[in-house]
Write a structure and sequence with these properties.
about 45% helix; Beta-Lactamase; alpha+beta; five-stranded antiparallel beta sheet; 6 domains
Length: about 750
């Protein structure tokens, strides 16, 4: 390599410096200048080297950070369970994370630089290529779902800028199988909830916790309370008057805020028609979005309570009846084989404990001394059946003949029960005996008079019948009167009555018939049912069945009842209902206020027109009296008119008074009322109220104008009379002067 000028200077300058004292003086300035220039150049060169070294160090740091970033990025990609990859503009893989490599079943080296056609079946590769091209064509993110290997994948593809102005395709592929399954489970759950909500036999409602506004209500709620669903969704529980005592809802909300459980609490509710019912109320707080809601159910137990009350009354009556009838109590100790009796028991047998030797008696003595020989085997079999039964609630009722102390033969009805030990063995039987001798005698007389009864039954309205339900549930008809043929308009025989009944019964009533009869049989209570049948000409007839049950020996139930044709009654009821609906429609749409007042002068109903009339909501005035709404000075006249309306129901009665107004104090009204106390649908005086403020103002203005007219007439008439008087005075003066009167007509008007 040839020597540079710099190298020459580097080599020569030390020599020149060492011989500086021997150089000519003219060289010294040059040498100094060269030396300074070299030193400056050397310093500049050193600075450049230092700058280069610093830049190199910074580049190394940047490269190190870049490498670390790439490692972290790679670790992040490989840690991701999603499939992540990048393709160049020729759709070759340039980035592929571990999840994608495992999905393809290849190593990273086997994937990079390859296309989908190198790695997948052709059909799959073609779909992938089409979605890649769509992402580039649309220049946006493309989302699709595809099933593979029994899983569902969500695929996102999007354009990615590459070097040299090229564009590749990036992609994220996520396994959404679990999410889709969860979504499907949620959808099915929501469908199940909606189905359970709508098909629940209980009244179910969904309300907003804040103000009780209805969000939803099932068909059972609509049917129970009588509100249209559209009306409910536009109102709240308080607005429709659901709570008979509105403070109950506030108590429920407060309890929920205290995290108390509200389940099967008894409250009183009010239906649309105003009748109250008792329900078991359950509710829980749920969150729907940002809204706190209450999901509630109401189990109507009104009839249950009534039935319980009837049962209590029945038990009280039964207890009294047993005391009055002196029903005899007995027990049988299985281990000792001994009966124990009370005084009433012996009284039924016309004997006493003293006569038979005490209150305890071995079973053999009881059978020999007190049971009729022909019925002793029956009693023994019933006792054996009670001992053998595994049912802890075993109960039987039998009747048999007895031997009385006076030598007569009587009849008793026996109701027996069992007592089991811990091993399920019968250790005791007990029960009551009722002397039914008189009843048996009456039954004999009844059987003797059956023909007479049939004659009577044939001439009464409707039909008399007997239904017998055996232990197997089979329905038989032991007796029916000839009136059945008139009801069915067909020849009827007792043996085919049941088949005929079901063949011609309305399809929708058969299940109700069977259910109600079974329920009445289970409770042994009176059976009442209204149902439809088809006449031979296709007409629908309504029948009312009513019957009382009686258990027979062997467990069968005999129903004695009456069957009536109530078709005309149903038609009349339908006409009355339609009339009531028309009346209600008229009331709701009347501009006048329509109200119903009971005999005590208390408002039972106020139409919606009350609010624009007086400023009060209708429900604010319900329960108020006439004294609460009429001006004290008008009260006596109004009450007299009200009493007149009650006393004379044949005509309407009118009165004017001042009615209270929420903001204006009092307004003049005209009230017309008529007595409908005897109408079951009304049971009150119907009054119509009309605001007569404008009429009063018009009347006052007319009176004022009439008074003004009268005043002007008086003034005018007075002036004319004075002029006539002056004319007559002038005439008189003219006569005194011997002249003719200038106003002769004034004399005529005076006459």
């Amino acid at each position: 390599m040839p020597e540079t000028f710099h190298d020459l200077l580097v080599r020569q300058l030390p020599l020149l410096r060492s011989n500086a004292d021997h150089l000519p003086d003219e060289w010294r300035p040059f040498l100094q200048a060269v030396d300074r220039a070299y030193r400056d150049f050397d310093a500049q060169l050193r600075r450049q080297e230092l700058a280069q070294e610093q830049t190199s160090a910074e580049l190394n740091q940047v490269q190190a950070r870049l490498n670390e970033s790439e490692r972290r990025h790679r670790a992040f990609l490989d840690a991701d369970s999603d499939l992540v990859f990048l393709k160049d503009d020729e759709f070759r893989y340039v980035v592929s994370n571990r999840a994608n490599n495992e999905f393809l079943g290849k190593s990273e080296a086997e994937v990079l630089g390859r296309t989908d056609f190198d790695l997948m079946p052709r059909a799959v590769a073609e779909r992938c290529r089409a979605s890649d091209q769509e992402a580039l064509r649309r220049d946006t993110c493309v989302v699709a779902e595809e099933a593979a290997n029994g899983k569902i994948y969500q695929i996102l593809k999007f354009p990615v800028p590459l070097a040299n102005g090229r564009t590749g395709v990036g992609s994220y592929v996520r396994d959404v199988t679990a999410r889709r399954q969860a979504e499907e489970i949620l959808r099915q759950s929501e469908e199940k909830f909606a189905k359970v909500f709508q098909t629940s036999p209980y009244a179910v409602l969904l309300t907003r916790a804040e103000d009780g506004r209805f969000l939803d209500a099932n068909d059972a709620f609509v049917a129970l309370f009588g509100h249209a669903k559209t009306d409910l969704l536009a109102d709240s529980t308080l607005g429709v008057g659901l709570w008979a005592q509105p403070e109950d809802r506030a108590a429920v909300v407060a309890a929920l805020r205290r995290r108390e459980t509200i389940a099967n609490r008894e409250f009183r509710f009010r239906a649309k028609d105003g009748h109250e019912l008792v329900g078991l109320f359950s509710t829980q707080s749920i969150q729907i979005g940002e809204t706190t809601c209450l999901l509630s159910s109401i189990n109507d137990i009104t009839e249950r309570q009534r039935a319980a009350e009837r049962l209590r009354e029945s038990e009280a009556r039964l207890s009294t009846a047993l005391d009055m009838a002196r029903a005899g109590y007995w027990e049988y100790d299985v281990a000792a084989d001994v009966f124990t009796f009370d005084d009433n028991f012996y009284r039924n047998y016309k004997t006493s404990a003293a006569q038979v030797g005490g209150y305890r008696m071995p079973s053999a003595d009881y059978s020999r001394r007190l049971c009729h020989p022909d019925d002793a085997p029956l009693v023994a079999r019933e006792i054996e059946a009670a001992l053998a039964s595994a049912d802890p609630g075993y109960s039987r009722q039998i009747e048999h003949r007895i031997l009385c102390g006076d030598g007569s033969v009587g009849h008793v009805a026996v109701r027996l029960f069992v007592v089991k030990d811990a091993q399920g063995r019968t250790v005791k039987t007990y029960g009551v005996n009722q002397n039914v001798t008189e009843r048996k005698q009456a039954e004999e007389k009844l059987r003797a008079s059956l023909e007479r009864l049939q004659d009577v039954a044939a001439n009464v309205p409707g039909a008399i019948y007997q239904l017998q339900i055996g232990r197997t549930g089979a329905l038989e008809v032991p007796f029916m009167s000839s009136g059945c043929e008139a009801l069915f308009e067909r020849p009827v025989a007792a043996m085919d009555f049941a088949g005929l009944l079901f063949d011609h019964m309305h399809f929708g009533d058969r299940a109700l018939f069977e259910h109600s009869l079974a329920a009445a049989a289970q409770k042994m209570e009176r059976w009442n049912l209204e149902f439809r049948i088809a006449a031979p000409d296709g007409r629908t007839k309504w029948l009312r069945a009513s019957a009382n049950p009686r258990k027979l020996a062997g467990g069968a139930i005999l129903w004695n009842g009456v069957l009536l044709d109530i078709t005309r009654l149903k038609q009349a009821e339908e006409a009355r209902r339609a009339s009531e609906e028309r009346l209600q429609l008229l009331v709701k749409n009347s501009s006048d206020v329509i109200a119903v007042v009971d005999a005590a002068g208390r408002l039972k109903y106020v139409s919606p027109a009350e609010e624009p009339f007086s400023g009060f909501h209708a429900e604010e005035l319900v329960g108020k009296t006439i004294r609460d709404v009429v001006h004290p000075e008008d009260l006596d006249a109004t009450l007299r008119a009200f009493q007149t309306a009650i006393a004379r129901p044949e005509k309407s009665h009118r009165v004017e008074c001042r009615h209270v107004h929420k903001t204006q104090g009092w307004i003049p009204v005209e009230i017309v009322g008529q007595n409908f106390l005897d109408e079951p649908a009304v049971q009150g005086v119907i009054v119509s109220m009309r605001d007569v403020s404008e009429r009063r103002q018009a009347e006052e203005e007319m009176s004022r104008q009439l008074a003004e007219l009268r005043r002007w007439y008086a003034v005018t008439l007075g002036r004319e009379n004075r002029v006539a008087e002056l004319k007559r005075e002038v005439n008189a003066l003219a006569r005194r002067l011997g002249e003719a009167p200038p106003y002769p007509r004034a004399e005529e008007s005076a006459s």
